[in-house]
Amino acid sequence: MLHKKDWENTFDKKVLPPKGMRDFLPNEKKLREDMMTIIRKEYRKNGFNEIETSFIESIKRLENSDGGENTELLFRILRREDNLNLADGEATDLTDLGLRFDLTLPLCRFYSRYQTMLPKIFKSIQIGNVFRAEKPRAGRYNSFIQCDIDIIGDATNMAEIELINTVSRVFIKLGVKGFTIKLNDRRILQALVEYAGFPKEAYMDVILTLDKLDKRGKDGVVEELVAKGFDQQHIDTFMSTLELLEIGGLAKVAELDLSVEGAKNVRDIISVFDSPSNEFAIIYDPTVARGMGYYTGTVFEITYQGIGNSLAGGGRYDQLINRVSNLEMPACGFSIGFERVADLLKSQDCSFKKERRLAVLMACEENRKSLIEDTNLLKENYDVVSIYKQDEDMDAQLQVLKEQGYNYYTSYCDMIKIKPIE
Amino acid sequence: MLHKKDWENTFDKKVLPPKGMRDFLPNEKKLREDMMTIIRKEYRKNGFNEIETSFIESIKRLENSDGGENTELLFRILRREDNLNLADGEATDLTDLGLRFDLTLPLCRFYSRYQTMLPKIFKSIQIGNVFRAEKPRAGRYNSFIQCDIDIIGDATNMAEIELINTVSRVFIKLGVKGFTIKLNDRRILQALVEYAGFPKEAYMDVILTLDKLDKRGKDGVVEELVAKGFDQQHIDTFMSTLELLEIGGLAKVAELDLSVEGAKNVRDIISVFDSPSNEFAIIYDPTVARGMGYYTGTVFEITYQGIGNSLAGGGRYDQLINRVSNLEMPACGFSIGFERVADLLKSQDCSFKKERRLAVLMACEENRKSLIEDTNLLKENYDVVSIYKQDEDMDAQLQVLKEQGYNYYTSYCDMIKIKPIE
After folding, report:
1. Is some CB atom of chain B closer than 8 A to the CB atom of A75?
2. Within an 8 Å CB–CB cutoff, is residue A92 touching chain B?
3. A384 & A266 share domain
4. What angle do CA A11, A15, A17 make, to 5 degrees?
5. B229 with B260, same domain?
6. Of A173, B1, B328, B419, which alpha carbon lies 20 to 30 A from B206's?
7. Prediction pTM value
8. Would the CB atoms of A369 and B54 count as touching at under 8 Å?
């Protein structure tokens, strides 16, 4: 016989989703769908068009992308042949497909496929789940939603300006105010790496370490650079110059002659949005690096007081489409971290729209034809009309209905008298 | 050197999604999202609450479900260990997870997990992708959307009535009129199988063959029953009785004493909806069987003139939750085959809402701050406001914008004069 604890363990396992995966109860799902509707509508209002790419991509394409450490977090799908030759093969031979880990690689494939059918400057929306086999921990899930907009075909920073304008409008519509948009340019970072004395080819390695500053602090960054075997002198110069830039801003970038184009680019973009009436701040932040290898110019993220991780991030990736299909095509994108924003709004107990919810209580089982016809008419005037059997203890039932968000009720024998649930 | 044809093949492969998977261009994606909005809103209006379950489930749970042939169409996910012991293992040992093939099994798991937090009668919505590794062919995809509603906890046929009322309202809102709802009851089918002389245990085998009537015709069904080794006499009686039922309807069911409860159930449901003012027909169809093993009572589907496959289907499955978690709980569900409805609406060139789309053409690169501020104001009055660089040949540009659905434009030097695109 099983002990109770053992039995509960069995039971739990049987009804839980796999580790790192989630189910959503109605209240949370409602918040998520409302968020998605707002994001989708505002993206679209700003001239972007939604596309959809498949959840599943060829494993080779995923492995050979420039996805940084994401390529080590793949969910690989077993080939569907009857007789897989296991004894001979390596793990990679057993799989031909994998789940996408972001929406940017599929977008580049999509654009390469359909370029001739798309506008010269293509402004795309992609909203959907991506999958990463990370060790699950608080705030990190193995399946999560990204909400991306991208502009392909515009080499000018009008692309950055439109992306930033659109995403900031979305945040305001979501009720997230007082956020900060932080800008940097990979060309400034590259010049800084060289200025500090690092060898040219160390650039990406240094940048990817700098990206961890949020989580590990300056000491953590220094530690990792030391561990990577870089010269202490170069590391010291790098960190102290970063501090100079944090104080001196773009003027200091110019003074040190780090990257004229990079500095002009960042200044241009900030000047468009820098206004006292704005509901957000926009600043140059020399420590913003972003963790993907493929960025070539502007990089940006949105931060919010008290939240360690950024709520959105993106940048310019002018060489990525080229890598998929030998098509030289400038591109720039911005991605909202849907889960972090959802967690934030959930913690603020946010709900977007109060619904008029009517419960129709059946007092008898008779005359269901007119019950259905009459409730259908009521659906014109209420957001929700739901039929329930009337319980003997109607007070208790109304209490439960109230907890489910119902604010009106009627008994079916008495359809005309609709009463509020107090 | 590659021949052109070879080169094209290489190129195509690189930019195509995997076989059976799809990408969606903006126009088609817009139709799909509009459909989804209508379905979601109407489901909710009728008192159902949306939940979400994970795309990925434990492989054991998927394999041990009552999913019929779907369990042979699983996408299996390789374990994420560094050293998989390939030489020893069988394919099943290599995988721990799989992609869900429907939304019903995850719902039963979800309900078993959260039962204490859910209303006594739980009316759920689930909308999402499911995955089946079928040989891709026209109209069959390896990843597709299902839109399910289910009522858990109601043993009466008010559940069937609410499901049918809701789904028929959705079809009318989608502009699909003149459809037919076909009802049957598994208890009538079971009695019919016994009446024909088949052994009792042959029931499910005969039903699953009957489900193929749409596609294979009566001869095909007889052929498969013969191939399965059933007695010719039993097969003949079965087919001829089916024909009697097709002519005589529920009266014939009663006359042959096939299933009193089944016949009453079907008659009850039809009587609620049978009205000359209805925009759809509702009938008893003795050949409706449904292909899942788990149905226990009412089964139904929606058909539409000229389309071989049903557009929606469902039924009562009172024993399925029991199988997941030893919880006796009546349940009934209805699922819209989103892809088939989308294909139908696409073929009818349907579009749900005409948008006011304004293109703002930048004549110069200057003054982008006020460009952004001014276009943001215009967003209050248009569904879409998108900025483009003004081309030298503006007539040609307006033509292209018109093709993209823009119906208004303005030049940035002349923001006040907004003109229609003729």
Report:
1. yes
2. no
3. no
4. 135
5. yes
6. B328
7. 0.92
8. no
